[in-house]
Amino acid sequence: MDGIYILGNDAVFDQVIALVNSIQAHNGDRYPICIVPYDDRVDRIREKISGYSGVTVFDDVVIMKRWEDFVFELWDQVPQRYDFWGKGGTHSGVHRLGAHRRFVAFDSDSPFSRFVYLDAAALALYPLDKFFTALDTSDFVTYDFQYKDPGHVFNVNLEETLDFLDTEDNGKKIFCTGMFASRNNIITEEKRRTIIESLKAGGSRILYPSAPVNTTLNYILITLGLSYSNLGVDLPKEERTGCCVTSDHFVERDWQLYDKGVLLTYLHYIGMSGKVFARLCSGENVGFPYRDLFLHYRYLKTPEELPKLKGRAVAFNAPPSLLKRVKKKIGAWI
């Protein structure tokens, strides 16, 4: 069975609902949706999706534990991890462990034999059929341009990293794990052991702990030699589009986006905190690119709940006002 996974929790509630609505708006009921919990905070999501058809929360704790154990063992092979994580307050365990839970999609006992995975920080703007079609000939399918910036995936300051990426054009296989398609049971227990042994043999040096999920899954893909298709490269040039919110040239029409006349498949609000969307949906007039598009899908099924925003919009990344800075300073003195 084909299906779609989303990773999220109640901290990104509004984004999860917007994404679910956008998927169903453009794909109908063709693909069931399964929300993988980032952590235990999913009560609000559970309550909301109880009124949806074809949407569930992933509840198999055995599978989640299986992959968490793998992640712990994997990062135990990376001694340099705390040089990065310690600065961010992670002195034990695995940094952003919940983000690794997307790996449950690869388990042989997971519900979908083929799947598309999307971060909650995205909107689907077009049917996702092309990804499932591409899976007929590839183990992994993506649609992004992370390969142009390998320094946010691997430690590119090492000669061995360059050798690793140059082999059989591996550098072009690098992708952002915020969106990809694959199938279950391609990263078997035996293959997971292969990854651990590869790291023990010295491969761990090339991993980039500041982006633990990205570096892990890219390392797995390349080390195992899994077949790969990036639609951002493989599609004819005239059919390709961008996907990131940082692109300001997309044209909005009928609640979809166009890149030089070509419809975007999805929009990724990459780098934006979930707090921004929560502030907006609570009624704060926060401005950010393609904000109205997000609001449209967030309240697609409940337009009566659309927040009534007042005053001028304040940019989501604007520095705090003088009053807020004074209050913060006073608070530090008390």
Task: Please report the number of helical segments.
Answer: 12
Arithmetic mean of pLDDT: 92
**Low-confidence parts:** 325-334
* Overall domain count: 1
Order of helical and strand elements: EHEHEHHEEHEHEHHEHEEEEHEHEH
Largest β-sheet summary: 5 strands, mixed
Q: Briefly, what CATH class?
A: Alpha Beta
Describe the structure.
- With 334 residues, the chain is of the alpha/beta class.
- It has a single domain, classed as Spore Coat Polysaccharide Biosynthesis Protein SpsA, Chain A, CATH 3.90.550.
- It contains 12 helices and 14 strands.
- The chain has helices at 13-27, 43-49, 61-75, 81-85, 129-134, 159-166, 189-200, 212-224, 231-234, 274-281, 291-298, 322-333; strands at 2-8, 33-37, 55-57, 114-119, 122-124, 140-142, 179-183, 228-230, 251-253, 256-259, 262-263, 266-268, 286-287, 314-315.
- The strands form 5 sheets. It has a 5-stranded mixed sheet, covered by helices on one side.
- β2 (33-37), α2 and β3 form a beta-alpha-beta unit.
- α1 packs across α11 and α7 packs across α8.
- The radius of gyration is 20 Å and the shape is globular.
Task: Provide the descriptors you would attach to this structure in a database record.
single chain, 334 residues, alpha/beta, Spore Coat Polysaccharide Biosynthesis Protein SpsA, Chain A, three-stranded antiparallel sheet, 15% strand
Compose a concise summary of this entry:
With 334 residues, the protein is α/β, with parallel strands linked by helices. The protein is built from twelve helices and 14 strands.
